Amino acid sequence: MIVYEKFHPYLPHHNFWAILQWVLTVPLVLLWNFNGVVLAGILVSSTFIIPLRQVRKIVKIDIWPNVIPYLMYSFLTGLVVYLISRQVLIDSIWQLILVGGFGALFYAGLLFIFERKQMIRDIVRFKQVIFEKG
After folding, report:
1. CA of 122: how far to CAs of 31, 70, 105, 129, in Å?
2. What is 70-103 written as a DSSP string?
3. Residue 39 contacts by C-beta under 8 Å, 6 or more apart in sequence?
4. Which residue of 10, 62, 93, 130 is most buried, as measured by CB atoms within 10 A?
């Protein structure tokens, strides 16, 4: 709560993002059908930089070392799934689920290879929080 009170003037109200989502979604859906919803979400999500810049003036925040590796894993997974989908004609929901499932397993494999220690710490912490008595 103390952090919120300190940074409240720098953080746009959460309604800003809800309103922006709807303002962008309607015209983008009219232009690009359901892909417009995705584009609106991407555009709204990209505005996180606005409060981040304000907060960084007060507190040293370095998010890129925590973001870049996962962006690379996602990009690599997307590339592999794209290449597979170019080789395999996906003409049923089951094939789509199979290729998507392979993408999820590929991403999980990358995480296991490169982020194993952090994954184990996260799983242990998750178990502690879920099964904590009291």
Report:
1. 42, 15, 18, 10
2. HHHHHHHHHHHHHHHHHHS---SHHHHHHHHHHH
3. 24, 28, 32
4. 10
Contact indicator for 106, 81 with CB cutoff of 8 Å: yes
How far are the Cα atoms of 81, 122, 127 from residue 98, in angstroms, in the given order?
11, 27, 29
Q: How confident is the model at residue 50, as a pLDDT?
A: 82
* pTM score, whole prediction: 0.65
Ordered by start, the domain boundaries in the chain are 1-61, 63-134
> How does DSSP classify residue 12?
P
Give the contacts of 16 (CB within 8 A, at least 6 positions apart).
none
- CA of 119: how far to CAs of 11, 38, 55, 96, 97, in Å? 31, 29, 28, 28, 25
Question: Which DSSP category does 132 fall into?
Answer: -
